[in-house]
Amino acid sequence: MCGIVGYIGSREKKNIILEGLKELEYRGYDSAGLAVLKDKEIDFFKAVGKLENLANKCEAFSSEGFGFAIGHTRWATHGKPTEINAHPHLGEYSCVIHNGIIENYKEIKEKLEKEGISFLSQTDTEVIVQLFEYYAKDMDAFDAFKKLVSELKGAFATLLISKKEPTKVFFAKNAAPLIIGKNADETFFASADAALIGKVNDVIYLEDVSYGYASKNELLIYENDILRANTFVKLPSDKAYAQKDGFRFFMEKEIYEQSNVLSEVLMGRIEGEEIIFDELKNENLKDVEELSICACGTSYHAALSSSYLFNRLSKVKTSVEIASEFRYKDGIVKENSLFVVISQSGETADTLEALKIAKQKGAKTVAICNVDNSSIVRLADYSILTRAGIEKGVASTKAFATQILTLWMLAIFIAQKKGFDMNKELKALRHIPKVALVTQKLHDKIHRLSKRYLDGHGFFFIGRDVFYPLALEGALKLKELSYLHAEGYPAGEMKHGPIALADSKLYTIALMPELCLYDKTKSNVEELIARDSTVLCISPNEFELSDDFIKTNKQEHFMCEFFEMMIIVQLLAMEISIRLGNDVDMPRNLAKSVTVE
Ligand code: M6R
After folding, report:
1. Do 279 and 347 fall into the same domain?
2. Structural domain tally of the chain?
3. What is the per-residue pLDDT across 485-524, written as a single tens digit (0 to 9) for each?
4. What is the value of pTM for the model shown?
5. What is the CB < 6 Å shell around ligand 1?
6. Ligand 1, from 254, 293, 296: best to mutate by most atoms within 8 Å of Cβ?
7. Which of 51, 199, 482, 496 is deepest in the core (most CB within 10 A)?
8. Domain check: are 68 and 104 in the same one?
9. What is the pLDDT of residues 387-429, one digit of tens each?
10. How far is the CA of 575 from the centre of ligand 1 (A)?
11. 185 and 170 share a domain?
12. 480: part of which helix (H) or strand (E)?
């Protein structure tokens, strides 16, 4: 996710900003930029790629003496990772940096374009600075800032400097973090603690719907339009801990982040009752007769899950293949079919090669990917970014969640093009970020349960329909992290062989959603219980025969049950492996991105 830093003071501002951005590198980025306001002049620099590139660009620039500076690292979501799209974004006499997504940026842009204002970048962020200057023509700079902030919808943490008011930094925050730190003569801003540790001891964590300004001697913060007291709290001092936002592992942080990144997946992509994919603007996909999906590992499980949705909602015949298998199969890619590849990194060699083959065969290709400008994104005809932000844990969690949601939306998108009513799906979609919130009660329960699952001669994760690929994913998570043997299996298939393994030391994790083949799955679980298997059932319906039970919430759509159970299997794998003393973020023998065959 993007990183923000800001500074008011007399030290060399360029260095302060670059140091701060360096501390936020762990959040991932593909371009960076900074701007300095001093003596009523603004200097700015931007560069694609690593911070070294930005440092090189401003090597000859120096800015000692009192002034204001802002800096940003960008993870592309709206528009390519280019210099033009990098922050700060500029108006005629102001510039802005921003984290989050301005949901209503299109409406604002259209309004301003009608007034003759032209835009340079493809980003949502640029509307902030253009709208500011539009209002600042007729009013005081802070009033203009307030007015523009009141029009923004979505998530934003933003800093703006302007020659119109060269003694202030304006800031606003909603649904994206922004922290202000102060010592005697200096003020610092950052999107995460790590950038402030060592610089200040006391900070204010801004609440949502906050805005204000800071100058040499003033700090004014309005919360819901009411001026609040500046009450500082102590900043933590451990950087590694701060980078994980206080979680023990990046994976744990990423599991908890899922609700937020899922909101980002939805942002700007539902208009009224319709799904909008700007990325597919020129494709209506109505006539697609077949879908082929190719991916590896967790991304393959997302693919398999989505095949049920493409069949059921879009009424499109869908085949799914593991990319390394597709490569040497001389697979048939039909005319009027769409070839979809899914990849978190966009660099997985097998998936990239499958994409090349499909292109050579003349298929129309779409990449569902988390990293803009990756090899896969560059090669595919169309790409849809999954907006998960950088994923540091080798075991994929939030990338999977965002892939599933994106694919579900794509299935709805195609169904809508065909004229099917998708209102029930849209209602459920909107509910997903709430479903994906992790509660302390659930986490504690899974932690307690996990001690009973540290040995045994194997695990079976079982489920039916879309819960079968989720069972595969649960088993993969457990394998990767705990090094215990685990398999995912279709619940109805156990009786065709694997049930021979059943005894008390065979652990079965049964996914038993209420809204998707509950009775069928229940019978399959009873077959295992009759053979003395130890069974952990995950379901909203009490099941007295199970050895262990995790009760999920009653939902209105089976996909809501899917996301809730997804979190449970992720936490279970993590808690088991913590108890086993394994390295959760970097399991043995694994790499985050597999760029070899
Ligand atoms: O970057 P990709 O999504 O293409 O990576 C595919 C797999 O290598 C990846 O999902 C792997 O299975 C993860 N370690 C799963 O947790």
Report:
1. yes
2. 3
3. 999 999 999 989 988 888 888 899 999 999 999 999 999 9
4. 0.85
5. 296-299, 343-345, 348, 351, 394-396, 480, 590, 593-594
6. 296
7. 482
8. yes
9. 998 898 999 999 999 999 999 999 999 999 999 999 999 999 9
10. 20
11. yes
12. helix 467-482
